[in-house]
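sry for the spam today, last one i promise. C-alpha cells for design, 397 residues
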C-alpha cells in the first residue's frame, strides 16, 4: 500500500501484473529488469563497470579507479542520458571537443566509456541467452569512434611522444653516461635521492615500486606477504602487487648489493624511529604522510641540467633499462625483468627463463650501464673481481 496512493490503484497494478504473466508466461519482475537495462544511462554503465573492477579476484588498483572516475567526470553532461539515445554524431562531437584541449584525455575517456558499455552489453547477452530471449541492449554507440578511426595508432602515438619530448630514454652511447656521471657528482650532497634514482634505473622498476621498498628484517611475517621488500641475506628484491597485479622478484646484483648495504647502514645510523627505519628510502620530512621518499623531480632537473639533458621523467629510467636490456639479452628475459606478462599466450609459461639466467642477464645489464660512467662504476664496484676503469679527469670536480 505504501507505494500507491489508494487501494484501487494498488489493485489495478496487481491486475496488470497478472495480465502480463498470463500474456508472456514470464515473471513480471524479470521483464521489468530487462526494461530497466534498456533504460541504462551512461552513469549507470560506469557504476556497473566500476563494481565489476572492484569485484574481480584481483580488484582494480586505486589509480585505475581514479582514471575511470575522471573519464566519467568528463562526460557528466551525459550522466542521465540513456545509452540507446546516444547518437554517433553526438559522440564524435564530444570526442572532438575534448580532443581539441587534450587528445590523450579524449582517447582515454572514450575508451573507458566504450569498455563500460561493452561490459553491460556482454552481461545482458549472457542473461538473454540463459532466459531464451532477445537482449534488451545490444548496440554500443561508442563503437563509432573505432569505425571513424578516432583513436591514434601505435606509430601515431610514438610520433606524438617524440614531437612533445614525452618519452626520453637515455642512450648508452651518450646521455646515459652523462646522467650517471652527474648523479655520481650529486650523490655526496643528496645520497637518499641519488640512491633512489640509481636503484630504479638498475632494476628497471617503476617509481612507486622502488619508493615503497622496506627492509625484510623489519617486517613481521604477516607484513612480508603484503609488502615490497629488500632481502639482502637472500639477495632478493620483491615487489608486491605490481601494476599487472602480480608480485615480481628480482635478484640483487653486485652493484645493487653495494648500494643497498650502504643504504641500510645509513638508515640505521640516522633514523631514530622504528617506523622510519623500515623504509629503504625513508621520507626526509617527519610530516610525510606516506613515510617514504616520493618526489625526485627537483633532483632530476638538477642532474639533467648538469648533464646537458633536456628532460627526463621517472618512467624514462625504466625505458632506459629496457633499451639496454634489449641489446644484451633475449626477449623472454627482457619481459621477465620488466615484469611484462601476456596472459593470452600459453607458450609464455614454458619459455619462462630460470633464476640463474635472469641473474646473469641482470648482472650484465647493470655492468653495461655503470661502465658508461667510470667514476660511478669504480665507486660501487672497483675490486679484484671488477678492476677499476680509467676515469675521465675532465668530469672530476
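last one done:
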Amino acid at each position: 500500500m505504501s507505494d500507491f496512493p489508494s487501494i484501487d490503484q494498488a489493485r489495478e497494478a496487481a491486475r496488470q501484473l497478472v495480465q502480463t504473466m498470463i500474456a508472456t508466461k514470464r515473471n513480471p519482475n524479470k521483464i521489468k529488469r530487462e526494461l530497466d537495462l534498456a533504460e541504462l544511462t551512461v552513469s549507470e554503465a560506469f557504476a556497473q563497470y566500476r563494481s565489476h573492477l572492484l569485484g574481480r579476484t584481483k580488484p582494480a588498483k586505486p589509480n585505475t579507479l581514479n582514471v575511470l572516475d575522471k573519464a566519467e567526470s568528463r562526460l557528466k553532461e551525459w550522466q542521465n542520458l540513456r545509452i540507446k539515445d546516444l547518437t554517433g554524431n553526438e559522440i564524435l562531437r564530444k570526442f572532438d571537443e575534448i580532443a581539441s584541449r587534450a587528445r590523450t584525455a579524449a582517447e582515454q575517456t572514450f575508451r573507458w566509456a566504450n569498455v563500460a558499455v561493452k561490459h553491460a552489453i556482454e552481461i545482458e547477452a549472457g542473461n538473454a541467452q540463459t532466459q531464451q530471449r532477445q537482449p534488451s541492449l545490444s548496440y554500443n554507440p561508442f563503437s563509432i569512434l573505432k569505425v571513424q578511426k578516432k583513436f591514434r595508432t601505435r606509430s601515431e602515438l610514438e610520433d606524438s611522444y617524440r614531437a612533445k619530448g614525452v618519452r626520453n630514454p637515455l642512450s648508452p652511447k651518450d646521455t646515459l653516461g652523462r646522467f650517471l656521471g652527474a648523479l655520481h657528482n650529486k650523490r655526496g650532497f643528496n645520497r637518499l635521492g641519488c640512491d633512489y634514482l640509481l636503484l630504479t634505473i638498475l632494476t628497471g622498476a617503476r617509481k612507486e615500486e622502488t619508493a615503497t621498498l622496506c627492509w625484510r628484517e623489519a617486517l613481521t611475517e604477516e607484513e612480508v606477504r603484503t609488502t615490497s621488500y629488500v632481502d639482502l641475506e637472500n639477495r632478493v628484491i620483491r615487489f608486491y602487487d605490481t601494476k599487472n597485479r602480480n608480485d615480481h622478484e628480482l635478484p640483487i646484483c653486485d652493484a645493487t648489493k653495494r648500494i643497498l648495504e650502504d643504504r641500510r647502514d645509513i638508515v640505521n645510523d640516522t633514523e631514530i624511529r622504528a617506523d622510519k627505519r623500515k623504509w629503504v628510502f625513508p621520507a626526509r620530512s617527519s610530516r610525510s604522510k606516506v613515510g617514504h621518499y616520493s618526489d625526485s623531480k627537483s633532483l632530476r632537473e638538477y642532474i639533467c641540467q648538469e648533464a646537458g639533458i633536456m628532460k627526463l621523467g621517472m618512467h624514462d629510467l625504466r625505458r632506459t633499462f629496457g633499451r639496454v636490456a634489449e641489446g644484451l639479452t633475449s626477449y623472454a628475459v627482457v619481459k621477465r625483468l620488466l615484469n611484462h606478462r601476456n596472459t593470452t599466450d600459453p607458450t609464455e609459461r614454458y619459455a619462462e627463463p630460470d633464476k640463474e639466467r635472469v641473474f646473469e642477464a641482470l648482472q650484465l645489464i647493470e655492468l653495461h650501464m655503470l661502465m658508461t660512467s667510470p667514476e660511478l662504476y669504480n665507486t660501487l664496484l672497483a675490486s679484484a673481481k671488477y678492476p677499476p676503469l680509467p676515469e675521465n679527469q675532465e668530469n672530476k670536480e
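The first strand starts at residue 214 and ends at 215. ok im logging off now
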